[in-house]
Write a structure and sequence with these properties.
α9 runs antiparallel to α11, α10 packs antiparallel against α12 and α14 runs antiparallel to α15. This protein is α+β, with helices and mostly antiparallel strands and 517 residues long. The protein has a seven-stranded mixed sheet. A six-stranded mixed sheet has the order 14-18-13-17-15-16.
């Protein structure tokens, strides 16, 4: 039965929704809107690989740990932990007195229910790979949980700090089941209000939040604004107080607005690269892959496509990620590129195809630039920018390497656990071929595979550093990618907004968000 609002109630509802004051004496609500570039696909953090989905989830969910604005691990719902000498057993002490938004107690049983769910392959959740190392989760007492791993996994705490590992109310999981992605119930500073897919997600202050005095604002709205120019415009008009990403070419204009702060974070770990299918000719020849690295002027790419808001990469894993190793960069040398192509049997170059994983304006500039650069050494490529559906079908869902039609592929990746494991294993290990993960270059090197596993098996930091160094140097020399740039995180916000950042992995941190009026 439909409930009809009287005009007075309708006006009041509109006032709440849009932050309009109904009386000059009323308390001015602190309503903050984030303009974001893509639509949210689910509100279940365990069933998405979207950084934005998980960033928004930090409003209403929390995990045992979290990353701060510098991607350092901080304790949240865990207050302490110990690890057994063999690296297999992790015991966590939990924060007492915390409740979920529905009044359910946060305790060890809640943690067990949450981690049992993604660790079970039958649930087919997107983040299964992150939790598949768990052998069992046991309740020791109401505020102590013990997790036993199948094998040592030294990146485990980083994996738990990732927003895919946030706690959902067990009562909500029982109530909503597979529909939990539409009904988020967590322990976070905000509680769910409304989600209109492709339009916006709205949350409001949770009065029962365990951290006293927080949050400092009344509502957060994540509004989908796909058009780059419109996203910049809504901050200028005051419709939004924060926008990310913003067009690099508009930064100069936005900086002239006295009410706005344009923030350029150079600590980004969003690496951009051109992968090559190493199991297909001519890319099975390492000399061809080396030639392509020499053929691309990365400094010019940073200027032309990113308006200078990018840095040439100097390693497989970006600086700022734990255990990243500097190896390069590959210099721009057309003479050497042509010589290598001749040695490989392609003195006049060859023809191929280049796909872009994205169809935004910046990515179009990138692939057009790459096309022009490769033409200088006789490599003629046809270019196609893929929409998300095409990307899934043509690249991510391919079942066998021999069926893959991908040849050259422009993409990006952030090592969002803050540790080299997540910059290597999903992209460059043999078990990570699609459809399992994202090794689109179909690169396979036993020493790399073994090294990745050895690094995960040790808790000796010096030993781990040396293993990861060798792995990254091997990959760099094998050149399954043309290593391009790390893209700066450029965003714009109202000068009245504080306590919010874009993190190095392009997620959001808004742990101290406030709005001056």
């Amino acid at each position: 039965m439909m409930k009809v609002l009287r005009p007075t109630k309708l006006m009041a509802a509109a006032a709440v929704a849009f932050g309009v004051l109904t009386s000059p004496l009323a308390h001015a609500a602190k309503d903050v809107t984030f303009a974001v570039s893509i639509a949210l696909e689910t509100l279940d953090p365990y069933n998405t690989n979207s950084t934005l989905n998980q960033a928004a989830g930090k409003a209403y969910y929390e995990g045992l740990f979290e990353f701060d604005k510098d991607l350092k691990v901080q304790k949240v719902l865990a207050t302490d932990y110990t690890v057994s000498e063999d690296g297999l057993v992790y015991t966590f002490k939990l924060r007492p007195g915390v409740k979920f938004h529905d009044g359910t107690d946060f305790n060890a049983e809640a943690v067990k229910i949450n981690f049992d769910r993604p660790a079970n392959p039958e649930n087919r959740l997107s983040r299964y790979i992150q939790f598949s190392v768990i052998e069992k989760t046991e309740v020791v007492d109401p505020m102590t949980i013990k997790i036993t791993l199948k094998k040592p996994f030294s990146a485990f705490i980083n994996a738990l700090a990732h927003p895919a590992a946030m706690m959902i109310s067990p009562a909500a999981l029982a109530k909503y089941g597979k529909e939990i992605g539409f009904h988020p119930v967590g322990t976070g500073p905000f509680e769910f209000v409304e989600w209109k897919p492709a339009e916006y997600l709205k949350v409001k202050k949770f009065d029962g939040y365990w951290k006293k005095g927080y949050p400092k604002v009344d509502t957060l709205t994540f509004r989908t604004v796909t058009d780059n120019n419109t996203r910049a415009a809504v901050v200028q008009t005051g419709e939004a107080q924060f926008a990310f990403p913003v067009p690099f070419e508009q930064a100069a204009v936005l900086k002239k607005n006295e009410k706005l702060d344009v923030v350029d974070h150079k600590n980004s770990i969003m690496a951009r690269y051109l992968s090559m299918n190493t199991q297909q000719k001519p890319f099975d020849n390492p000399k061809v892959r080396e030639a392509i690295n020499y053929a691309i002027n990365k400094d010019a790419l940073a200027k032309v496509a990113f308006s200078g808001y990018a840095t040439v990469v100097d390693g497989v894993v970006p600086q700022g990620v734990d255990f990243a190793h500097k190896t390069g960069p590959w210099p721009y040398d057309l003479k050497k590129a042509k010589a290598l192509l001749a040695e490989a049997g392609y003195p006049n170059g060859f023809e191929s195809q280049l796909w872009s994983a994205y169809n935004d304006g910046t990515s179009v500039k990138v692939v057009q630039f790459l096309q022009q650069q490769l033409a200088q050494v006789g490599i003629k490529v046809s270019v196609e920018v893929l929409e998300s559906g095409q990307r899934v079908q043509r690249v991510q869902q391919v079942q066998k390497p021999e069926d893959a039609k991908v040849r050259m592929y422009y993409a990006g990746w952030s090592s969002s656990t803050g540790e080299a494991d997540w910059g290597l294993r999903p992209l460059l290990s043999t078990p990570a071929f699609p459809p399992v993960l994202n090794n689109v270059s179909y690169y396979s090197n036993k020493s790399v595979d073994d090294g990745i596993q050895q690094a995960l098996a040790t808790t000796d930091r010096a030993k781990k550093t040396e293993i990861y160094k060798n792995v990254q140097e091997t990959i760099w020399k094998d050149a399954p990618w043309a290593f391009l740039v790390t893209q700066n995180n450029l965003y714009v916000k109202s000068k009245n907004l504080s306590g919010v950042y874009v993190e190095p992995d392009t997620s959001f941190w808004f742990g101290d968000i406030d709005l001056k009026q």
